[in-house]
Amino acid sequence: MHVTLIHYLILSAIMFGIGVVGFITRKNMVIVLMCIELMLNAANINFIAFAKYRGLYEGMSNQLSGQVMSLFVITIAAAEAAVGLAIIIVLFRSRKTINVDDVDLLKH
Amino acid sequence: MDFVFYLFGITGLVSAVGVVAFRNPIHSALALVAALFSTAGIYILLDAEFLAVLEVIIYAGAIMVLFLFVLMCLNIRELKALPQFNKKIRPFAIGITAIFLVDMVYLITKSQFGVGELATGKYTSEQVAAIGSNAKALGQVLYTRYLLPFEAISLLLLVAMIGAILLMKEGLGRK
Amino acid sequence: MDHPYLPILILMFFAFIFTVVTIIMSDLARPSKPNAEKNSTYECGAPIFTDARGMVSVKYYIIAMLFLLFDVEAAFLYPWAINYDKETLGLFGFVEIVIFIAILLVGYFYAWRKEAFEWES
Questions:
Q1: Domain that holds residue A90
Q2: Given an 8 Å threshold on Cβ–Cβ distance, is C68 in contact with A86?
Q3: Which of A14, C83, A2, C64 lies closest to B50, judged by CA?
Q4: Which chains border A (3 or more CB–CB pairs < 8 Å)?
Q5: Do the chains contact at A85 and B66, CB–CB below 8 Å?
Q6: A108 belongs to a structural domain
Q7: How high is the mean pLDDT in each 10-residue block of chain C (121 residues)?
Q8: A70 contact residues in B (CB cutoff 8 A)
């Protein structure tokens, strides 16, 4: 069977699903952040696949828009990793834990 | 061509499962690097060379280095002793995700996406080749049509930088 | 099968095969007589004084974070650099990129002010 847009979409859906399972079941906060990266990555595959196969819709100037969006997603992932990991380090220093279940207090 | 798609797709999915399943966080991080490399291969199949290179440089290079540094800043030995998996919630999570996947696959295959023709318009692969390179064509779109998001991205990076430095300098100092 | 990236795929394939074959061959060919001295970590010949699994200083994180964010900035400059000529972008593109860099320079001076670049503190 020839590879078409459907194959890329299903690949990205499965990768997103794996990311969701890890996001819910893992207790280590760093791994939870990694699973978020996995999900963003799956979304990126979707953007680029649509850019190649379905670029031109009304309101969309050209098919490179999908690739530009994916560039922005990579940037957002970088910013998210920088701030998220800083929060994890500060949390570990003050609470001595990075288990998501132990961090359930709002007060100091 | 098809063979290459399945090669990168399967290595990507297997390493993605590795990220979720490995006990040792360092192994998870390395599995994520493998998943990102496979994704870069998929990007090349989709004519997005510049993004494939960025995926390797930024994601697999810089972001994963950051993750590994953080894992080393935390105390690995204590981390390994911690419970890693939430066993109670696991069947629920897998069930929900299975339902989601069945829905997605049903919708995708039922949709009109599979007709297989490539996109038409200003930047087909031949026209991109005539412009010179994928990066050049991407720049022409990025710096004209996406001017405002582009400037907004610099604000996002600025806020991320200030936030991370503030957390490190103030959050650690005060205890 | 005449994709322009086919040579890279073949290169990757042979690199993979070469690595696997080399590791298996050396595993089969070498004598195996381990002792405690041989199995210890080799650190330029000096005696080892701590475990490598200790805590690494947070300073490394700050350097890696600054590297990551400026790396992303440099990635955005590349498509601009190869498009920078009179026909496509011109003065408009120049002003645009100056604004982009000026916003990030604020972050650079903030990091400088907060002594994020200082190793001893």
A1: 5-100
A2: no
A3: C83
A4: B, C
A5: yes
A6: no
A7: 79 94 93 80 72 69 90 90 78 89 92 80 56
A8: 48, 51
Contact A61 B86 (CB under 8 A): no
Beta bridge partners of A99: A28
CATH number where A76 lies: 1.10.287.3510
Let me know if residue C43 belongs to a domain: no
pLDDT tens for A1-53 read: 678 888 899 999 999 999 999 999 988 889 999 999 999 999 999 989 888 87
**Is position A52 within any domain?**
yes
**Cβ partners under 8 Å of residue C99, min gap 6:** B151, B154
Inter-chain touch A78–C72, beta carbons under 8 Å: yes
pLDDT tens sequence across B76-102: 666 666 777 778 888 888 999 999 999
CB contact under 8 A, B116 and A4: yes
Residue A107 falls inside a structural domain: no
Tell me the β-bridge partners of A26: B85
Write down the ipTM of this complex. Answer: 0.88
What single DSSP character describes residue A26? B
A106: in domain? no
* CATH class of the structural domain B1-74: mainly alpha
Measured between beta carbons, the chain C residues lying within 8 angstroms of A89 are 58, 61
Every domain of chain B and the residues it spans: 1-74, 120-175
Q: In this prediction, what percent of chain B has a pLDDT beyond 70? A: 84
Residue C33 resides in a domain: no
Considering only the C-alpha atoms of chain A, give the largest distance between any 2 of them, rounded to a whole number of Å. Answer: 58
- What spatial distance separates the first Cα and last Cα of chain B, rounded to whole Å? 56
**Chain C neighbors of A81, CB-CB under 8 A:** 68
Q: Which domain holds residue C68?
A: 58-113
In whole angstroms, what is the distance from residue C1 CA to residue C7 CA? 11
Nearest residue, CB atoms, B19 vs list A24, A38, A55: A38
